[in-house]
Amino acid sequence: MNNLIKLVFVLVIFPITLIAQASKQNYKYNIDLLHLSNDEVKVSFTPPTNNLKQGKFVIPKLIPGFYQAMNFGQYVSNLVATDKKGKKITTERLDQNSWIIHDLKHVNKISYQVADGWDSLEKDTHEAKSAGSTFIKDSVFVINYNSLVGYFEELKDIPYQITVTKNKDFYASSALDYKQKNKNTDIVRAKDYRQLVDSPVLYCVPDTTWLKIGHTEVLVSFYNKKERHYSKKIALEIENILKNQQAYLGGSLPVSKYAFLIYYESSNETGFMGDGLEHSQSTVCLYRSGSMNYLPNALNRVASHEFFHIITPLNIHSGEIQHYDFLNPSLSKHLWLYEGMTEYATIHMPIKQKMISLDDFEKSIEEKIKGMKEFDNKLSFTEISKNAMERQDQYMNFYQKGPLLGMCLDIRLRELSGGKTGTQDLMLQLMKKYGAGKYFNDDDLFDEITKMTYPEIRIFFKDFIEGTQPVPLKEYLTKVGFNYDEATGKVSLLSNPDSKQLSLRKAWIGQ
Q1: Distance between CA atoms of 143 and 130, rounded to whole angstroms?
Q2: What is the pLDDT of residue 21?
Q3: What region holds the Peptidase M61 catalytic domain (predicted)?
């Protein structure tokens, strides 16, 4: 009988001990959105249990999706480390984005303050806002955790628990699941730092609409200081796009939950300003204009492009992205894939799904050609990609020349397969091979795609993406019954296409 009691005692105590130990092996953060001081948010956290004499604490210099130094540590001040008795422990700031914390094994709490990354979406500034955060106490918090939360280089790949103190009327819109502890407190968990940074949150009085697209739940959350109950109108626009994307991607969307977080700032100025950043399961869209009439139209293009990023780089990416270094990142040479092919899908999907006319499609191609001519097109795309931080002057060409290369690749695949397969099929095949959690080697991708397709495709990559030969627009558009006037930049239908051209065009764009 005594042995049985002992056995029960062990069975009860052992799991409890495991839970207690597991809870110490995470970052426990507290973020106070209720008691702002000088427009700064108070942040504190308890590090994971460790035996380190010192640790290097990092706030990102750069995050995936941006290719210029953002230096988010610049918004952090008054960093203090203390032990269990409240005694200060020595810290050293190394640079804008990193600190040495001494005697880390005895640190009980680290606290600091964070200023917002932008106060307003001013038209005359060109600095990206979407990766920063804004704090307007009584109205809204657009939070990107790369601005507020850090990690120790010695303690990576560890879960996070974030406790948020907030206005009782505010709702957390995010792809992560926020649990309400009480009316002023939310708790959210992330499996690691990458997932946390990849999951922004919009805190405000809710104006939200949920959509169901196949098996995918889509949250549309909107904020404007004056306009309320506007998310439903936006959701109707987004729903049409996503249903067509679902069909374009073979009948299903490769994500179970997605959130569109839309911040709109009214202005007395004319014109329209927008900024956005894609994430694995969400998109942040920031807009400023004098009229909301621009908004649904602007969202059409942005929502489509950003949502297509669920294919790449979410499901198709290199080791450089899988093991991203937030302080000193090594960049991939495949921005032609991440941005170029994503933008190509954005202009190809509407014509393939019969959402736009041939005239509109021709104009889309012409716009890309015109945009491409503003850049140096004698440079290797893989080299620019690998050195994107140093070649910011050429970066935007991935959105201009990139989709034109995607178009030519699509036409070439259709030609070699007798119209049976194109880039739609290629991307789905790559997604099966390199799904979430997997990655390709940067130097191997072209050869891997060649194995999946045709030997001629390796020559295409060598000539036009690794190499510097001009995009063969006239040759390839002729293959599908279009004429390209190199002098004027105009694209139009051939007056007398032959049956082969008509058949290939039908396979390419469905008409």
Answers
A1: 10
A2: 43
A3: 301-404
Degrees to nearest 5, angle at CA 29 with 179 and 205: 45
Domains of the chain (ranges, CATH numbers): 26-118+144-198 (2.60.40.3650), 311-511 (1.10.390.10)
Angle CA(409)–CA(410)–CA(416) in degrees, nearest 5? 85
pLDDT at position 126 is: 61
Q: Judge whether 340 and 406 are in contact, CB under 8 Å.
A: yes
Count the Cβ atoms, other than its own, within 10 Å of residue 290: 13
Nearest to 196 by CA among 57, 49, 310, 28: 28
Peptide bond between residue 313 and the one before it cis (omega within 30 degrees of 0)? yes
Of 196, 159, 156, nearest to 25 by C-alpha is 159
pTM: 0.90
CB 314 within 8 A of CB 436: yes
3-state secondary structure of 219: strand
Contact 400, 368 (CB under 8 A): yes
| pLDDT at residue number 350 | 96
Q: Which residues of the chain have pLDDT under 70?
A: 1-24, 123-126, 271
Q: How far is CA 448 from the centre of its chain?
A: 25
Tens-place pLDDT, residues 443-475: 999 999 999 999 999 999 999 999 999 999 999
pLDDT value for 24 = 63
**What are the φ and ψ backbone dihedral angles of 403, each rounded to 5 degrees?**
-65, -25
Q: Which amino acid is at 199?
A: S
Rounded-to-integer distance, Cα 466 and Cα 381, Å:
6
Residues 149, 160: Cα–Cα separation, whole Å: 10
Handedness of CA 460, 463, 464, 469 (dihedral sign): negative
Estimate to the nearest angstrom the gap between the alpha carbon of 149 and the chain centroid.
18
Q: Are strands 27-37 and 160-165 parallel, antiparallel or unpaired?
A: parallel
- The tokens for 193 are 């730092």
Q: Tokens for 409, please give them.
A: 């690749």
Tokens of 440: 């390709």
- The 10s digit of each residue's pLDDT in 15-53 is 444 334 445 689 999 999 999 988 899 999 999 999 999
Token output for 344: 């190509």
Tell me the chain's radius of gyration from C-alpha atoms.
25
**Residue 339 DSSP code:** I
